[in-house]
Amino acid sequence: MSAASSLTNAFRDIAEQYQTENPASKVFLNFAASGVLQQQIAHGAPVDIFASADEKTMDLLVQQQFIQNDSLQLFAKNQLVVITPIDSKIRLSDLSDLQQPAIKRIAISNPDSVPVGHYSKIALQKNLLWEVLQEKTIRTQNVRHSLDYVARKEVDAGFVYRTDAMLTPDQVQIALTVDMQENVHYPIAITRNGTNKIEAANFIRYVLSAAGQKILAQYGFNAP
User: Which residues pair with 67 in a beta bridge?
Assistant: First the structure.
């Protein structure tokens, strides 16, 4: 199974619980930025299930006919936030405050391959800040990379999902929840080239079940 980086902790727990309840099953997990996973699947990587952090990336695989369309479902929802180091004195009332001199480096994931980067770019463009902030921007490989940069105080602020910020409350703080026009939805589906359709369908049902949704909720994800 290939899943977006922001799902790492939740899906490890879901897979562990699923295997406990289904001792004959074994789930192999592969985490990376959704765009990277999309490329892997398109180039023939042996994947049975794909879980993306955005609908755009999943839709691309659907268009390329790598997804079993009738299996596609939304299973979670998230929020885009700006975080700062836990002891930072920086205060943000809106995105324009990222221009203040105290903020010299901002971690933003690659908008071309990472959903959180795509959402961040849209939000900044909406506020006419994308070009303005380019000199401050540090590109990261995925959302967890941005989280680590902020946690280690290598940057002054970073764009991540609320669920990521919740993982290290002793190292980062949410400075701003970004107002988004589009929802941050997570889709999941079986791949056309997967070799274990029955087990894949069973696992997706488990993700959507009360047990799976409970684990997702524990990590801050909302129901779709």
Answer: 191
